[in-house]
Amino acid sequence: MSPGVSASTRGALCGLAAAALFGLSAPLAKPLLGTTEPLTLAALLYLGGGLALSLAAALRRHTHEAPLRREDLPRLGFLILAGGVVGPVLMLVALQRASASAVSLLLNLEGPFTLALAALAFGEHVGWRGVASLLAVVAGAVVLALPTGPVQLSLGAALCVAGACLAWGLDNNLTRTLSLRDPLALVRAKTLGAGACTLALARLTGQAWPSLRTTLLALGLGAASYGTSILLDAYALRLLGAAREAAYFATAPFLGVLGAVLLLGERLSPATLLAGGFMAVGVWLLLSERHGHSHTHDAVAHEHRHVHDVHHQHRHAGPYTEPHSHPHQHAQVTHDHPHVPDAHHHHRH
Question: Can you state the percent helix, strand and coil of the chain, rounding each to 5?
Fold first, then answer.
């Protein structure tokens, strides 16, 4: 992608592409559920993503990204536990106790939980456009998920879904804190770890292994809808922060419906068009955001892929090429320019 494209635009494209790939996983995975248990299918999807990224890493000649470090392991372990184990298990427990339509409605809590954690626990600036955008996108997702029959939802099931969404919101924010590391290495570890844990749960609960054909189809789907999707989402988290990424990624249900229309021959309903309108407004609110003011960067030392732009003016002992990655220090600086809450812009407002 051209270096002249702004960080917010690149982040938006990554977030929407990630949402599209993940949204398409629903209509494509639906036929596989006829012959595969849910936990086993989830494990195969994660492992498909991890294996594809492992192949990509093996074929990659050079990387200018910062590697994962030993000090990253606790956060990596927590995000795998939250997003790859706790979230899926709680959702499956809820599906056993409630109707799919009721669970779908409550799954829209992931976006608000991600935003709330980003603002309250991780110090990310959101602003009125971020809140309004997420509300518009979630409203569209609610319209898509509105049940046509009676909603069956017990308190226990509702708490399970809310817990799953909270776990995924924590996963999103923890991934954002590691997004300056090599995204491919980060997502490879995340998908392989989640796949191994979910597979262990599937085996412990006695779920049967599917046929070879179903296994290969699930692994292939996981390569695109989990591996590539989560990788693009990691770039979106790096470029935009967790709150804005949540708004873009929340378009996944609508993009999944469009995929069902194109791939499965389903028809567009008035509710789908209304949902698309809500989501279009939400995406426009973020794409048209222009946030700029005088702000101060505190002195900080970290490591990530960079070029010598306005935020990177350090010296090198010898010749170097760009982009590159190494530990470097930022001196305190005050300036004024448009920005989004990326890794260099977590200042107070």
Answer: 65, 10, 25
